[in-house]
Predict the structure.
Amino acid sequence: MREPIFRIDHLYKKFGDNVVVDDLSLAIQPGECLGVIGPNGAGKTTTIRMCLGQTAPDAGSIEAFGLPIPRHVREAKKRIGVVTQFDSLDPDFTCAENLRVYGRYFGLPRAIIEARIPKLLEFSALQAKAHVRPGELSGGMKRRLSLGRALINDPDLLLLDEPTTGLDPQARHLMWERLQNLLQQSKSILLTTHFMDEAERLCDRLLVLDHGRKIAEGTPRGLIREHLESDVVEVYGDGAKAVARQHAALAQRIETSGETVFFYLSEPRPLLQALSGDHSVRYLHRPANLEDLFLKLTGRQIRDEA
Amino acid sequence: MLISFYAAPRLTPRFYPVVLRNLLVWRKLAVPSVVGNIAEPLITLVAFGYGLGSIVGRIDGLPYVTYLASGSIAVSCALAATFESLYSAFSRMHVQKTWESIMNAPIALDDIVFAEMLWAALKSLFSVAAIMVVIFALGISRAPTMLLALPLLGIVGVTFASIALVFNALAKGYDFFTYYFTLVLTPMTFLSGVYFPIAQMPGWLQAVAAVLPLTAAVELVRPLVIGEMPHAWLEPLAVLAAYAFGGYYLALVLTRRRFYK
């Protein structure tokens, strides 16, 4: 394995008595996309803020490109691009001006900035919007401009905090395509997300965070194999709970959420046979996915925004 | 290490692109801004200077309009710097999250606070220049020493920007700034010898007035506007410097606390 481009060792952070990041370690290899998934308040955003030197860890260390953070955060940031959870585009500037002004924050020479602007507008699929202000852009366009802006310094590492939250499916797919494109250019990405399909599609490795602690780590497929049965049968309808009691023995594990019962099993045929004659319920048979993993590891209870 | 809240300001040339950013935004809105900068003092000077002045007569040997104009130039400078460091800086800091996006680039909070302070002072000089044009055009004063007042007004801008950034750092919303205006700035304009001489006030109020930054500003600027040299440099400059340095340091500490929690 090569030397990681970014590493966090035994990171620890608390606000008052509340431990938000608890003994977190991770490493990102060059060209790798590492996903961090976890419920609201799991410590994802705080971790990113510590990586950017915006809040100090209480213990542990962070290193980007071999530079310790926060001590050499300014040097490190020259090679990092950031997309935050909420758009912070400059509303008074056009798309092109947003890129130009942001390039100046990196102290880049004018010629380099001017050469990159049309390329980044193209990358963001915003060539036609170069002279339009962000207020007139759709949510997806704004996110793509935020991503384009994060690339103005041609970074080696991207920190993306929920980059597709709030986007419609078309806009998310376009965003994913762009991120895959960046991975092909062997950029490294640290991505936090709530979307399991996003994590599965983009991430080489995943880290599941809950209450500031790492509770699982591995490739998306590997995690599912390690923690879950291969198949899931979802049963809906008034009779679902009765069905669950009746066929409990056919599944390794059963979970109930509202009126839906989830059967987790490695051998689905007996249950499917039993259900095929039962008209009191509807059911769906599918392979286990990351969402199942996530719910298994972090539970089904609602987490309010921290 | 992350900077300690109480560390001395860490200044680097990285503040410059932030000043430039604000200047570029201002340039887009420059026309209404300049029109306002000229119209407001023009109306005040004509209405109060000539209108009220015809009743008041002369103050300290000056026609009232001259007395008023030479004092209100300092007020306009202070107000312009204050507005920029309260409402506009708060928009950038809190509402638009502009500061956060800047800090994701290799620019530190210390650079941003310094840039905001400097920019507010620079912007106050745009207002001052507009008023000087009005004073010149109306013939209220055509003294060349007026130009010497510009660098001093730059210091006045720095002072009031620094004080305002303290309140910016503490603010939860725009409403908070009303306190500063009604409880601090408005009373100060009445106590600083802008509209009437400080000697008209009771002794204890004169003592208060003597340590106000706006009084110091008026003492320095008024003589220069009417073509004289200030009677004293050291004391008013020391008062301004104390507020500027004290305000700036306090603003920086409070802003660090706000961000680096």
About this structure: Chain B has ten helices and two strands. The mean pLDDT of chain B is 94. The longest strand of chain B covers residues 58-59.
